[in-house]
Amino acid sequence: MAAEAVVRIQSDWEQVLRKNEGEAWLSCRSPGKSTLYGTLTRQGVGSDGVPEIVASEGFVVKEITKKSLLVSCPRENASTRFLAPYTAFCRLHQKSVTCLDISSGGGLGVSTSADGTMKIWQAANGEIRRRLEGHVYDVNCCRFFPSGIVVLSGGMDAQLKIWSAENAGCVATFQGHKAGILDTAIVDRGRNVVSSSRDGTARLWDCGRSVCLGIVADCGSPINGIALGEADNTLNLGSPETIPSDREVGTEGKLLLLAREDKKFQGVGLQSRQPLFLFVGSDAFNCCTFLSSIYLLAGAQDGNIYQLDVRNTKAPVRIIRRSGAPVLSLLPYKDGFIASQGDGTCFIIQQDLDHIVELTGADCDPVYKVATWEKQIYTCCRDGLVRRYHLSDL
């Protein structure tokens, strides 16, 4: 169980420390021990424009830049680097931003909101380019196809839609689910896509003909999140009971992961439709992803992040727990991953770093989704903001 000591900081530390003698609160929480509290105090600004900050007893400020701060707690041998947003886009939506994605070239973003809108915008400055209108009720999920000029969305109206990012036209609508669509995945270049729904099914679709090619899984419980990846070649994905349609393209060798509401995390062969494993967790699973063809991650409602080895899923490789808030999104990043949670926590764990990087600014508002392009990370939050972080600011 990887519930190591956690160093946390007041979320608006950057604003607090802009003024002289400004103070931000610190804490270091370790399982089974009393929480250590402290403060950071600004004592002026260096000639390079970087603030001079000192920590109270029990904490050490190791590195400071204009946008980041590395703080350690020697008692617990714990360190966290706090990274403030480079910029925030506040005019995209009127309410919570519930999902977002960035195009493969990094030029465009797409986002959905609790205000019922879905918009395409310039990733550099947040300038709105297109409004994608056609879903009834809320749009739950959106993502770019690999081309970067086509968008896939799923809504509470149980419909999947494909849109042109260039002219905002809806080019296809898929109907078949009996309840709201919660997540999607794109197979290879995008001739086929997969969707998951509150109706407990995951379905495979033919984009060219807008028809369902089959039900990949029927769980009897909402499938909150899915992920699609290449399976390790030592894994037997099973054989399909009937010969796959010639409209199925790129499904062979693919493993579909299902994060289920009934506390189960499941793997299914995409082409075979055969279940491969079923892992039972401590609470509902909200999201999942591939770290590699062998290692998988699944995030639960109680804050646990399970890392599993696909070759033996009986027990997790480790359980990572940063806070007790729901894990809302997981994304592989370099040799690690980014996770976001329902209490505003958003962090990066990488194997080659001896500290965790925490993305600040969301305060206690849930961070629903994270997207990356090269060294830039975008997050969307209940406070209605899309924040952009530059890892070069580290």
Q: Give the terminus-to-terminus CA distance.
A: 29 Å
Count of discrete alpha- or pi-helical segments spanning 4 or more residues: 1
Average predicted confidence as pLDDT:
94
User: Over the alpha carbons, how many angstroms does the gyration radius reach?
Assistant: 22 Å
Q: So what's the overall shape?
A: globular
Number of E-type strands: 35
Main pleated sheet: 7 strands, mixed
Helix content range: under 10%
How are the strands of the biggest sheet laid out side by side? 5-6-7-32-31-30-29
Quickly give the structural class: mainly beta
Uncertain segments of ≥5 residues (pLDDT<50)?
Answer: none
**Proportion in β-strands:** over 45%
Walk me through this protein's architecture.
This protein has a seven-stranded mixed sheet, with no helix packed on it. β10 and β11 form a beta hairpin. The mean pLDDT is 94. The protein has 394 residues and is an all-beta fold. The protein starts with 5 loop residues before the first strand and ends with a strand. The longest helix has 4 residues. It contains one helix and 35 strands.
